[in-house]
Amino acid sequence: SQLLVGSSKNVISDAVIHNADGEDMTQNYSISYKFGLLTLNPRPLTIRTPSQKWLYDGEEHYLAEFEHIGGELLEGHAFADPAEVNMKPATLMRAGEVDNKFGDLIILDENLKNVASNYKITQECGKLVVTPRPICVLTDSATKVFDNTYLEATGATADKSSPNPLVEGDVIKLKNSTRIRYVTDGVVYNEPANAFDGVTITNRNGQ
Predict the structure, then answer these.
(1) Cα separation of the two ends of the chain
(2) How do residues 128-176 score in pLDDT, each as one tens digit?
(3) Taking a C-beta distance cutoff of 8 angstroms, is the pair 201, 175 a contact?
(4) pLDDT per residue as tens digits for the range 85-134
(5) Is residue 47 within 8 Å of 123, Cβ to Cβ?
(6) How many whole angstroms separate alpha carbon 187 and alpha carbon 182?
(7) CA 124/CA 49 separation, integer angstroms
(8) What's the chain's Rg over C-alpha atoms?
(9) Model pTM?
């Protein structure tokens, strides 16, 4: 017999052969066996996960929820509560997007045993999206009397008047900055050579 999903040989022994009158005729045969195969296929289910969008804030985001939308669980079986049991939901911290997919869905029987292996679960996935945080970078200013050496100011800060300040723990560094050696007419702005690639923002671990 086969109770759980999978396959096994249909092994029998001691076959008995009777004639039309019900008499045992087994001793008149030399019996060999070729066993069949018993196969239980997983029961199909479908769940749907939601989508959510966040502004980058340095935190890891996830949604521990889903909706059962297709297929039937056997009586006495139920999905574990994703808010109480870690079912490895997708997570996202950096700007970008990922499928909101669970890595380990759990279905419990009456004895709280995980029987999810007996189900084939299709996930209709929403999206987790983290959008880039808009900030204004202020480069330092500097002044000195001409001495035939370069004047350079490599510091930078985030504009604190911005509605979205720099995330706590993140640090701004200039990859390159303007530098001058000779007296010039007018003002020279301390602008990275390439404004987009000229700034890097890392967290407190340098990542």
Answers:
(1) 56
(2) 999 998 888 887 888 888 888 888 877 777 787 777 788 888 888 777 6
(3) no
(4) 999 999 999 999 999 999 999 999 999 999 999 999 999 999 999 999 88
(5) yes
(6) 13
(7) 6
(8) 34
(9) 0.70
Distance CA 126, CA 99 (A): 6
List % helix, strand, coil for the chain (3-state, nearest 5): 5, 35, 65
Q: 138-170 burial by CB neighbour count: b if 16+ within 10 A, else e?
A: bbeeeeeeeeeeebeeeebebeeeeeeebbeeb
Nearest of 60, 45, 49 to residue 101 by alpha carbon: 49
Position 114, amino acid:
N
Taking each continuous run of H as one helix and of E as one strand, the counts in the chain are 0, 16
Largest CA distance in the chain: 124
Q: Name which of 131, 129, 108 is nearest 118 in CA terms.
A: 108
List strand residue ranges (DSSP E) for the chain, in order: 6-10, 36-40, 43-48, 52-55, 67-70, 78-79, 96-100, 107-108, 119-124, 126-131, 137-139, 151-152, 156-158, 171-174, 179-180, 199-202
- Nearest residue to 194 (alpha-carbon basis) of 166, 179, 174: 174
Task: For CA atoms 156, 161, 162, 163, give the dihedral sign.
Answer: positive
